[in-house]
Amino acid sequence: MEEVAQNIETQEYFINMGPQHPSTHGVLRLMLTLDGEIIKKVEPHLGFIHRSIEKMCEKDSYQQVVHLTDRMDYLGCHINNEAVCLTVEKGLELEVPERVKVIRTIISELTRLSSHQLWWGVMGMDLGAITTFLYGFRDREMITDIFEETCGARLTMNYNVPGGLMFDIHPNFQNRTKQFLEHFKKKLPEYDELLTGNVIFTERTKGIGYLSKEDAISYGVTGPSGRASGFSCDVRKKNPYSAYDRVDFKEILFMEGDCFARYQARIAEMWESMKIIEQLIDNIPEGEYKAKTKAVIKLPPGEYYQRVETPRGELGVYIISDNKKNPYRVKFRSPGFSNLSALDKMARGFKIADLVAIMSTLDLVIPDIDR
Amino acid sequence: MLSSIKKYFSDIYNGVKSLFTGMKVTGHYVTHPSEIITQQYPENRDTLKMFERFRGEVVLIHDENNEHKCTGCSACELACPNGTIEIISDKAIDEETGKPKKIIDTFVYHLQMCTFCNLCILACPTDAIKMAQTYEHSVFDRSELTKVLNKPGSKIMQGIK
Ligand code: SF4
Ligand code: SF4
């Protein structure tokens, strides 16, 4: 038998994964070079959902640019909005009221929680556990209700405007958020019972898709995926914006760099997010919900850059202004794009089924990659 | 040899135990149906109420006399990022002063292009438009989504400048 196997000539072959594949969570096409079931190379092909958001920004006013960023990383849309607003405020040298900073921080953390909940549900589903999907969405529903009541939309909220917020928080906001925290503190341990300890799940994630710290840095893998490889890159700690300088939270670091570490990093981040919200929810300062801005915003000529921490990693917004009412050039450094670039490195030598687990733990959102 | 056999069986034990831990959670919900939060949509259409800020579609507010507050200033049209609103204006004679003034002829709203960003509502100087809490927008033909918001025969309220 051995002899036969040696004499058979094998050859590598290509296979397309996507653009319509349930585990790519969107229209991403991966060209896989395979040797049997072992992955030799992964080449992502992008562009299926490219809407030229950066170009569209060039004809929009600064107020209008904000709503386009909802359509990038739609699971972290509030944070994207905030990033644009912070950049514009930096250009205007505008100090926003304390109330705005605190509300923005609370809603950002709620966004992070809802994104991680959805990720957890989908990750379980990718690896064959449909139950998690329903449980993740159950808890996420409470957050989308909070958003719907205060911001008016569940997903594409567009709640930030340059200078502050679109409207003040709803009178029910604090109560609902506290109710949610109370509820979710009981439910998060369920997540661990359902998935974290599950033998099938751990077998499929432990030791899979290893990414070293050096590689994480050189590929620019940020967010929980980078921190699971020991790369300390939390913008909220390194370069605090809004109200992150006054809250006490830990930067989650894991050293293993495998799928299970990335999974644990996100679960641990949910606890930290709840801690941040708890510190702020009773201390929202009184005051205006928006600083005064002109109806037509013109940034002084120059270049402005602001980075924020989205659920997927570091989002950078770069605006060049030539003193007109619309930006000369806008560039988004989206976390998904850089994280995807490390996929090849992580997947080599593993099997196709492992690739699904690796992509899940990278938490890719395709419109964020393509923009 | 002995230790590997021991490990083999302890792995099986721990594996099965972990599966039962998960099943305990799901079993809890099977026996506690009151904790299930699923809504029976569309059966609950009559009782389903959206939050007051929910952005369903843009409407022009009309009062009981079929009067609205829109002056035809086009501020909403300019604020809209994607050309969803088209104001077609007309000239009329102001009854009080006798001077010509601008009024709206048709307020066209393309629901299919709207991103529900709320910028038009913020831009309107007379609060003539608002977001309605409607939520079922699917139609059989795309042209049904292009709407005229001012009702036939409606006119502007007195005293709105
Ligand atoms: S909500 Fe936004 S997209 Fe829709 S009509 Fe108003 S400004 Fe235009
Ligand atoms: S709805 Fe408001 S902003 Fe738009 S044209 Fe009428 S008055 Fe002007």
In short:
The complex is a heterodimer of chains A (371) and B (161). By secondary structure, chain A is α+β, with helices and mostly antiparallel strands.
Give the C-alpha Rg of chain B.
29 Å
Shape of chain B: elongated
CATH fold description of the largest domain in chain B: Alpha-Beta Plaits
* Strand percent estimate of chain B: 15-25%
CATH class division of chain A: Mainly Alpha
**Considering DSSP H and I runs of 4 or more, what fraction of the residues of chain A is helical?**
40-55%
* Overall number of structural domains of chain A: 1
Q: What share of the residues of chain B lie within helices?
A: 10-25%
Structural Rg of chain A: 21 Å
Determine the structural class of chain A based on helices, strands and strand pairing: alpha+beta
Please report the two chains with the greatest interface, counting residues with C-beta closer than 8 angstroms to the partner's C-beta. Answer: A-B, 30 and 25 residues
Gross CATH architecture of the largest domain in chain B: 2-Layer Sandwich
State the CATH topology of chain A.
Cytochrome-c3 Hydrogenase, chain B
Structural class of chain B: alpha+beta
Give me the number of helical elements of chain A: 16
Count of beta strands of chain B: 7
Order of H and E elements of chain A: HEEEHHHHHEEHHHHHHEEEHHHH
What is the topological layout?
The complex is a heterodimer of chains A (371) and B (161).
Chain A: H1 2-7, E1 13-17, E2 29-35, E3 38-45, H2 53-57, H3 62-69, H4 77-92, H5 98-126, H6 130-151, E4 160-161, E5 164-165, H7 173-196, H8 199-205, H9 213-219, H10 223-227, H11 235-238, H12 259-281, E6 302-310, E7 313-321, E8 329-333, H13 335-341, H14 343-347, H15 352-362, H16 366-370
Antiparallel strand pairs in A: 1-2, 2-3, 4-5, 6-7, 7-8
Helix pairs in contact in A: 3-4, 4-5, 5-6, 5-12, 5-15, 6-7, 7-12, 12-15
Chain B: H1 2-31, E1 57-60, E2 67-68, H2 75-79, E3 85-93, E4 100-110, H3 119-123, E5 129-132, E6 146-148, E7 155-156
Parallel strand pairs in B: 2-7
Antiparallel strand pairs in B: 1-5, 3-4, 4-6
Residues 70-76, 87, 123-124, 126, 128-129 of chain B line the site of one iron/sulfur cluster.
